[in-house]
């Protein structure tokens, strides 16, 4: 696995809808919440679909989240299979995922 202190810059991908951010082993560095138009949840899986290992869930159900500024969540965790974001409970949002 890469050393996050030495191996910069991070690869990045924009995820405007549920889907695969990366396929294969990697280090998930961060997930940036860019915004949303409909509240809901975003589940993060180590995998290429929602059958993988659940890493975390961003619960974005408040109307406050619709108008908030972007924010970053640091994970720095090893992913064995890939990174998959699943949008639940009606979420319509936009995220950026950084990984190496």
What would you say this structure looks like, in words?
The protein is mainly beta and 100 residues long. The chain has a single domain (12-99), classed as Sandwich (Jelly Rolls), CATH 2.60.120. It has one helix at 63-66; strands spanning 11-15, 19-23, 26-38, 40-46, 53-60, 71-79, 82-88, 92-99. Strand 4 (40-46) and strand 5 (53-60) form a beta hairpin. The chain is globular, with a radius of gyration of 13 Å.
Please specify the SSE layout and strand pairing:
Blueprint: E1 11-15, E2 19-23, E3 26-38, E4 40-46, E5 53-60, H1 63-66, E6 71-79, E7 82-88, E8 92-99
Antiparallel strand pairs: 1-8, 2-7, 3-6, 3-8, 4-5, 4-7
Helix- and strand-based class?
mainly beta
Reading the helices and strands in chain order gives EEEEEHEEE
Portion in strands: over 45%
The CATH class: Mainly Beta
Q: What is the overall pLDDT average? A: 91
- CATH fold name: Jelly Rolls
**In the CATH hierarchy, what is the architecture at level 2?**
Sandwich
Q: What best-fitting shape do the alpha-carbon axes yield? A: globular
Over the alpha carbons, how many angstroms does the gyration radius reach? 13 Å
Low-confidence stretches: none
Strand order of the largest sheet: 1-8-3-6
**Tally of individual helices:** 1
Q: In this structure, how is the largest beta sheet organized?
A: 4 strands, antiparallel
Question: Helix fraction?
Answer: under 10%
Distance between the termini: 8 Å
- The overall strand count is 8
Domain unit count: 1
Oligomer: single chain
């Amino acid at each position: 696995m890469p050393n996050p202190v030495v191996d910069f810059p991070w690869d990045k991908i924009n995820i405007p809808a549920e889907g695969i951010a990366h396929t294969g082993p990697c280090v998930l560095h961060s997930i940036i919440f860019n915004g949303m138009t409909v509240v809901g949840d975003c589940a993060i899986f180590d995998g290429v679909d929602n059958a993988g290992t659940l890493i975390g869930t961003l619960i974005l159900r408040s109307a406050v989240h619709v108008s908030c500024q972007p924010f970053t969540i640091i994970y720095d965790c090893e992913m064995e299979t890939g990174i998959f974001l699943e949008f639940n409970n009606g979420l319509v949002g936009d995220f950026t995922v950084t990984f190496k």
